[in-house]
Design goal:
Helix content of chain B: 25-40%
Number of helices of chain B: 8
CATH superfamily of the largest domain in chain A: Winged helix-like DNA-binding domain superfamily/Winged helix DNA-binding domain
CATH architecture of the domain at 3-96 and 164-230 in chain B: 3-Layer(aba) Sandwich
CATH topology of the domain at 3-96 and 164-230 in chain B: Rossmann fold
Radius of gyration of chain A: 22 Å
CATH architecture of the largest domain in chain A: Orthogonal Bundle
CATH topology of the largest domain in chain A: Arc Repressor Mutant, subunit A
Distance between the termini of chain A: 44 Å
CATH class of the domain at 3-96 and 164-230 in chain B: Alpha Beta
CATH superfamily of the domain at 3-96 and 164-230 in chain B: P-loop containing nucleotide triphosphate hydrolases
Bound molecules: adenosine-5'-triphosphate, magnesium ion
Number of helices of chain A: 7
Oligomer: heterodimer
Order of helices and strands of chain A: HEHHEEHHHH
Radius of gyration of chain B: 17 Å
Shape of chain A: elongated
Distance between the termini of chain B: 16 Å
Strand order of the largest sheet of chain A: 1-3-2
Largest sheet of chain B: 6 strands, mixed
Structural class of chain A: mainly alpha
Structural class of chain B: alpha/beta
Helix content of chain A: 55-70%
Chain lengths: ~170, ~230
C-alpha cells in the first residue's frame, strides 16, 4: 500500500492540505500506522507529477491545498477494485528462529515456543484493550481487528508447533 | 479486590493406582471480582476439569476450592447446590438446554429454582436473552433455533440474576467471530460490573479479552507463560 491510495481516498471527499491529510489518515487507521508530514508531502508531489492530484490556492496561512483529478479518481477506483496478492513477506524472523532452535543442540524448543506464545498473547491483549476504548471509530476498530487476526495466526502456528513437537521424537540434532 | 474463587493446590485424579488419570495436578489460581481470566491449553490438558472444580460441580481429590470465602469441601450437599445455583453461572462446553422448554423458560428456570417468582424470573430471562441478541427467538424450543442461538441462550442462562462467578467453557464454539466478540464484550461487561469470570477457550483472539491468561499443560499451569501474560 500505499500511502498514495490512502491520500487519494481522503482527497476524493474534497480538497485538503497536508496537515489535514495526515490527521485524517491517522484518525482512520489508528496510531497503528504512523505517518509523518514529510511522507505526506513527498507522496503528494509524486501524485502531482503523475497527474493524479493538482495544487490549489494558498490559504491565508500559506498552506497549499490539493485536489484529486479525474485520473486520480480512476486510479482510486482501480485500487478499490483490484484485490491485493499477498506480497512476498520479508523473511519472518520467528520462523527462522524456530527452525534454528530445532537444529541447534542444547536449545529447549518447547521453552522458546512457550515464551513466544506468552509474549504474542500480551500483544493481543494490548490490541484488544485498544479495541475496547470508548469512542473508537469503526474503521479504527477494523484495523485493530486485522492486527489481532494476524497475531492470532502466529499464535495458532505456535500452538501447532507445540503439539507437533510434543508428539514427534526429536530429529536432526547432534 | 476481593477474591471470588480460589483454587489452592487443587488436584483431580480419575481412578487409582497405576491406571489413574491425573487430570489436574495441584493447581493454584484465584480470580478476583472484576477480573476476567482465560484458561488455554491443548485438548485434555484439564481445562474443563478446572472449571468443574471452580464451580463445585466436581470435587478435588486433594486441595481446596473456595467460592466467596466458603470452602466448597466443607459445605453440605444442599448448601453447595444452593451456592452453585445462586452464585455461579455456568456455560458448558456442550450446550445443554432442556429440549422441552422454550429458550425463555430455560433461562428463567434457575431463577425460579432460586425462589424468584415466575413473572419476575421471566422478565429477567427476557432481558438476559435480549442482551445476548436472542430476544426475538425467546419463545422457541432449542431445536427450533440455530446452534449459535442455542449458545446465546446458554450464555443468557449463565448471566441471568446476580451471578458473582461466571464459568464459561468454550462459549464461542458455534459463533462467528463478530458474534464471538459480542459475547466476549458481554462477559467483559459482567466483569466490569463486579463479577469474576473464568473463560476456557482455544481461540487466542478471545483469550486476549482477559486480564490474565493461564496456560495449562498436562494438568499443571505453565508458570513461564504466566509470568509474561500477567501484566
Ligand atoms: N470422567 C472421567 N474419567 C476419566 N478420565 C477423565 C474423565 N473426565 C476427564 N478425564 C480425563 O482428564 C483429562 C482432562 O480432561 P478435561 O476434560 O479437563 O480436558 P480439557 O482440557 O477440557 O480438554 P478439551 O479441550 O478437549 O475440552 C483428560 O485426559 C481426560 O481424558
Ligand atoms: Mg474441555
Amino acid at each position: 500500500m500505499s500511502i498514495r491510495h490512502g491520500l487519494l481516498a481522503l482527497l476524493s471527499a474534497g480538497p485538503r492540505h497536508g496537515y489535514q491529510l495526515r490527521a485524517e489518515f491517522v484518525a482512520s487507521t489508528g496510531a497503528s500506522w504512523p505517518l509523518n508530514i514529510g511522507q505526506v508531502y513527498t507522496t503528494l508531489s509524486r501524485l502531482e507529477r503523475d497527474g493524479l492530484v493538482v495544487q490549489g490556492e494558498e490559504d491565508a496561512q500559506g498552506r497549499v491545498s490539493y485536489a484529486i483529478t479525474d485520473d486520480g479518481r480512476a486510479e482510486l477506483e482501480r485500487w478499490f477494485r483490484t484485490p491485493l496478492v499477498p506480497a512476498d513477506r520479508p523473511r519472518d524472523e520467528l520462523v527462522i528462529k524456530l527452525a534454528m532452535a530445532m537444529t541447534t543442540p542444547g536449545v529447549d524448543v518447547a521453552a522458546v515456543v512457550q515464551a513466544q506464545r506468552a509474549a504474542t498473547m500480551a500483544v493481543m491483549q494490548d490490541l484488544t484493550r485498544a479495541k475496547r476504548a470508548e469512542g473508537i471509530t469503526t474503521a479504527h476498530r477494523l484495523v485493530l481487528d486485522s492486527m489481532i487476526f494476524r497475531t492470532e495466526a502466529e499464535q495458532r502456528w505456535l500452538d501447532h508447533c507445540e503439539a507437533v513437537l510434543a508428539a514427534t521424537p526429536q530429529e536432526g540434532r547432534a | 479486590m476481593s477474591v471470588v474463587v480460589e483454587l489452592a493446590e487443587a488436584a483431580r485424579a480419575y481412578g487409582e493406582g497405576e491406571g489413574a488419570v491425573h487430570a489436574l495436578k495441584g493447581v493454584s489460581l484465584s480470580v478476583a471480582a472484576g477480573e476476567l481470566v482465560a484458561v488455554m491449553g491443548p485438548s485434555g490438558s484439564g481445562k474443563s476439569t478446572l472449571l468443574n472444580l471452580a464451580g463445585g460441580l466436581d470435587r478435588p481429590t486433594s486441595g481446596r476450592v473456595t467460592v466467596e470465602g466458603a470452602d466448597l469441601g466443607a459445605l453440605a450437599p444442599k448448601a453447595l447446590a444452593a451456592l452453585r445455583r445462586r452464585r455461579v453461572g455456568y456455560v458448558f462446553q456442550e450446550v445443554n438446554l432442556i429440549p422441552s422448554l422454550s429458550l425463555l423458560e430455560n433461562v428463567a428456570l434457575p431463577r425460579e429454582l432460586d425462589g424468584v417468582r415466575a413473572g419476575r424470573a421471566r422478565e429477567e430471562a427476557r432481558a438476559a436473552l435480549a442482551e445476548v441478541g436472542a430476544g426475538h427467538v425467546a419463545e422457541r424450543l432449542p431445536e427450533e433455533v440455530s446452534g449459535g442461538q442455542r449458545q446465546r441462550a446458554a450464555i443468557a442462562r449463565a448471566l441471568v440474576g446476580e451471578r458473582r462467578l461466571v464459568l464459561a467453557d468454550e462459549p464461542t464454539g458455534a459463533l462467528d467471530t463478530h458474534t464471538g466478540d459480542q459475547i466476549l464484550g458481554l462477559l467483559r461487561a459482567r466483569c466490569d460490573a463486579g463479577a469474576a469470570v473464568l473463560l476456557v477457550t482455544h481461540e487466542p483472539r478471545y483469550a486476549a479479552w482477559a486480564d490474565r491468561v493461564v496456560f495449562l499443560r498436562d494438568g499443571a499451569v505453565d508458570t513461564a507463560a504466566a509470568a509474561v501474560s500477567a501484566r
